[in-house]
Design a protein that fits this description.
Length: about 625
């Protein structure tokens, strides 16, 4: 295509046809009639007209006028293209519309690696940039303009990265006026307070929870309705019992920018106990925070991490005061230690529920505030990073964290040393089997025969045995681990043993795993194997609609976690089932999801394979007279 001439017309605030015509003249310096003459005199030149920020309240005459331009402009010149953008769905264009979602962490990583290659940015840099941009394209584009000329480290030193120029370009004048209206009107103080609360609770919250706090006790659904009617917030129904209200990300950023830090800290202090709930024996995450994570509604970090960071910052700042007496210092130190305990417990909870990607993001975010604190037990965070990265298949990165954790871990913290050693064993099994065997032999001699570490070491050592002896060793250790109630270890052994069993034995072992396993990750592994067995043995009729829904949930979990190997197996399973059952929309969805994973991991083989299969499928269905996209 030859060079394209672009015209951008901003229709913010335009309600009537006359206002639209006036805006066309203001933004292009030509009337609509003059534009038609101009572009049709250049019949071989390409033109693109972008009508952006179409007001959701625009009247029918004005909207129809805009849409009619796309045909009226094409008199002699057919090389004219139109793009219409609006915060609300335009029904007349529903057949060819695209809804823009936030970028996922995987998508952000893919864009950054495509732009800068694998050398400019570390994984920590990518997490930091995702944290900054929150999946918003305009924010990522703004950050990449800086990255073209500086490193990620230098980026973190830029004060007011998203400055007034950014907000002028990306936050509409109408939106600013609405925020100022709430801020300056005493009768709207509760609605403005709700706006500020939601800016801190970036992933949204229910009005029921907000009203439980002292600060939000006077807020009611009328304030929610006012924010949504002003299009500053949206309500999201997660399930029959849960509706949350949340802000547009750029609105959230702007509200935080104009909110005094003291007030942000006050809101954070109030809401932390309602987000991370401490019981007698353990801490639990609020159902709202958990659901936003499970339903993919969170941004770069969830509300728990934001509140922890804000509270840690508040206490750290308070401790720097020269006016504190000894009693006040001790009280603040106690608060800080409790926040550190909550942070560690929270990350452990994420790992224990197989939320490995979220754990990595949370740790990197929290470390920024924790690294400067004395007695921060930072080795535990390194151990958690090693665990999460190992589960995500990033073995080299995980091993680097193992070395850091091992170096810093005090000898008296035997529980963490044990966890570090187990991760080291599993990693060496992947990276250097000889070293793994050497370490396993040493650990088997040093630990009691009924310990989990002894059993895991014996399993590692079975890798050096002939197949028949290895199977016997695995069977023996599986029974032993189950008898000693090391259920996850026992199930891990069964998953290894499964490769050597016959199909009917495999299904029995899988059912044993599913009846005793609490780990989401191992449950996903077991279910994938179960459906692979059914498919391989020709028992496709036993894969029900419920089974397909279950596999789709597993597929989405593996996609968001970036667990490439299991994801590929689940993809192949769903693809074969979808082709067999002719579920065209499922083929469509998993094809485009798969591309993101494969491109991120440079898996050209999988991308080419499924692109060929997809095109063959489209061609076959087109011949039958049916579009795959319908």
């Amino acid at each position: 295509m030859s060079q394209t001439n672009f015209f951008k017309i901003n229709l913010e605030g335009c309600i009537t046809k006359i206002q639209v015509e006036e805006r066309i003249l203001a933004d292009t310096k030509l009337t609509a009639t003059a534009l038609v003459l101009h572009i049709n005199e250049r019949s071989k030149t390409y033109f693109c007209f972008i009508f952006e920020r179409i007001n959701p309240k625009i009247d029918d005459e004005a909207l129809n006028y805009i849409l009619r331009l796309s045909s009226d402009f094409r008199l002699k010149n057919q090389n004219i293209y139109f793009i219409f953008s609006s915060a609300k769905k335009i029904e007349q264009l529903s057949h060819c519309s695209v809804k823009l979602e936030r970028l996922t962490q995987l998508e952000t990583s893919t864009i950054l690696i495509d732009r800068y290659g694998n050398n400019k940015l570390t994984q920590e840099d990518i997490f930091y940039i995702y944290e900054l941009t929150e999946g918003v394209v305009s924010k990522l584009d703004h950050v990449m303009n800086f990255l073209n000329d500086c490193s990620a480290d230098e980026l973190s030193t830029i004060e007011d990265l998203f400055d007034d120029v950014y907000y002028d370009e990306n936050l509409s004048r109408t939106t600013r006026e609405q925020i100022e209206f709430l801020a300056n009107n005493p009768k709207r103080s509760n609605t403005f307070l709700l706006l500020k609360i939601l800016a801190v609770l970036k992933n949204g919250e229910s009005i029921k929870t907000i009203r439980k706090t002292k600060i939000g006790s006077h807020i009611n659904p009328r304030n929610t309705q006012e924010l949504t009617s002003l299009e500053l917030a949206t309500s999201v129904t997660i399930d029959s019992t849960t509706t949350i209200i949340r802000l547009n990300t750029i609105v959230k950023d702007y509200v935080l920018k104009i909110t005094p830090l003291q007030e942000t800290h006050e809101i954070s202090r109030e809401f932390l106990p309602f987000t991370i709930i401490t019981g007698k024996e353990k801490i639990v995450l609020s159902s709202i925070n958990r659901k936003t994570m499970e339903y993919g509604l969170k941004t770069e970090e969830d509300n728990a991490v934001t509140l922890l960071r804000n509270n840690i910052e508040l206490v750290k700042n308070s401790l720097t005061s020269d006016l504190l007496n000894e009693s006040e210092k001790n009280a603040l130190s106690t608060q800080l230690n409790r926040l550190l305990y909550l942070s560690r417990s929270y990350v452990y909870g994420l790992l224990n529920s197989s939320r490995f990607t979220e754990a990595v993001t949370a740790i990197h975010a929290l470390l920024k505030d924790i690294e400067s604190i004395r007695d921060n037990n930072i080795y535990i965070y390194y151990a958690y990073l090693a665990w999460s990265q190992r589960m995500l298949g990033k073995h080299d990165i995980a091993f680097d964290y193992i070395k850091k954790a091992k170096e810093l871990c005090p000898t008296e913290d035997k529980a963490t040393l044990r966890d570090i050693t187990i991760d080291e064993l599993y990693l060496l099994e992947k990276l250097s089997l000889n070293e793994a065997l050497s370490l396993a032999k040493k650990l088997k001699n040093e630990n009691k025969a009924n310990s989990d570490l002894y059993i895991i070491s014996d399993i590692i050592l079975s890798n050096s045995l002939p197949v028949k002896e290895k199977i016997e060793k695995l069977k023996f250790n599986e029974k032993k681990a189950r008898r000693l109630k090391y259920f996850t270890t026992a199930n891990n052994i069964l998953l290894i043993l499964n490769r050597y069993l016959k199909n009917h034995e495999k299904l029995t072992s899988i059912n044993t795993i599913l009846s005793s396993e609490k780990s989401t990750y191992n449950t996903c592994r077991a279910k994938i194997i179960k459906y692979e067995i059914l498919l391989e043995s020709g028992q496709v009729d036993k894969i029900t609609e419920k089974s397909i829904d279950e596999l789709k949930d597993i597929y989405n979990y593996l996609f968001f976690q970036g667990l490439e190997s299991l994801f590929n197996r689940c993809h192949e399973l769903l693809w074969e089932i979808a082709v067999h059952r002719k579920i065209n929309d499922l083929i469509e969805n998993i094809f485009f999801q798969g591309i993101l994973i494969w491109r991120l991991n440079n898996d050209l083989k999988s991308e080419e394979k499924y692109e060929r299969l997809y095109n063959e499928r489209v061609a076959a269905i087109t011949i039958e007279g049916v579009s795959l996209l319908e």
